[in-house]
Write a structure and sequence with these properties.
InterPro entries: DNA-bd_dom_put_sf, MerR-type_HTH_dom, MerR_fam
Shape: elongated
Strand content: under 5%
Pfam families: MerR_1
Keywords: Coiled coil, DNA-binding
Distance between the termini: 82 Å
Structural class: mainly alpha
GO molecular function, one term: DNA binding
Radius of gyration: 31 Å
Number of helices: 12
Number of domains: 2
Protein name: MerR family transcriptional regulator
Largest sheet: none
Length: about 250
């Protein structure tokens, strides 16, 4: 049989057969004087087995193990691993669908796909049109996605009902083009720290509200005066956390 004939017989493509030859999965038969490969029935049996194994979901390296007989793993072992992997994939799909269902039910006003507890916080922002508030929402979503913040998000939910927060965002926005030595910085930083509830600090690590590298990147995302406010807030929160834990 020529390559096209064995491909049609087994139900694979000639390209697949050539790939199997290239990676050493299927031995390449000798060529006749005319340059054509001639395949035997044994080649077809082996090729059919390769096809069945790949249809079960085995990768080509796993197929190679099965075909290696004594040098490889037993088929039952490989299939058992495949079954376990499929079970993990099924669980991941269920988890993703659950999160998707939560996102579909998120409150009106949340402009990005985030988990329910964070959506409830972002959807009740007291300053929806504030650039500083928008940056806060982006940072909170990033913190949540990296596993930082934890239960502190629920505690921050109380700030949405505090009328003083709107004024704080307005004061932060007013510093957008100010210098890092603006006299308004110290007072604003102190007022921001004062409104953060103690419960929001429970999940803050001992080294502060953000790891060093992330903290530096966070500050770089702000204009100079606003960055100085955030730096002072982070320092004050670290001190406050350490005092609570003594």
């Amino acid at each position: 049989m020529r390559i096209g004939e064995i491909a049609a017989l087994v139900g694979v493509t000639s390209r697949a057969i050539r790939h199997y030859h290239h990676i050493g999965l299927l031995p390449e038969p000798e060529r006749r004087g005319n340059g054509y490969r001639t395949y035997s029935v044994r080649d077809a049996v082996l090729l059919a087995r390769i096809r069945r194994l790949t249809e079960l979901g085995l990768g080509l390296d796993e197929v190679r193990d099965v075909l290696a007989d004594d040098e490889g793993r037993e088929l039952a072992e490989v299939l058992g691993e495949l079954d376990a992997d499929l079970a993990r994939q099924e669980q991941e799909i269920r988890d993703r669908r659950r999160r998707l269902a939560e996102l579909l039910e998120r409150p009106v006003g949340t402009e990005q796909p985030v988990p329910r507890e964070l959506a409830e916080l972002l959807g009740t922002s007291p300053a929806p049109h504030s650039p500083a508030a928008a940056r806060d929402r982006e940072h909170l979503a990033l913190l949540h996605s990296t596993g930082m913040g934890g239960e502190g998000f629920a505690a921050l939910r109380a700030l949405a009902d505090d009328p003083a927060v709107l004024g704080l965002y307005e004061r932060m926005d007013a510093l957008a083009s100010a210098s890092a030595d603006d006299p308004r910085i110290a007072r604003l930083a102190a007022d921001l720290v004062a409104v953060v509830p103690d419960a929001a600090l429970e999940s803050v690590p001992d080294d502060g509200p953000a790891p060093t590298g992330f903290g530096e990147a966070l500050l770089a995302d702000y204009p100079p005066a606003q960055a100085e406010v955030v730096r002072r807030v982070m320092t004050a929160m670290t001190d406050r956390v350490n005092r609570r834990k003594r």
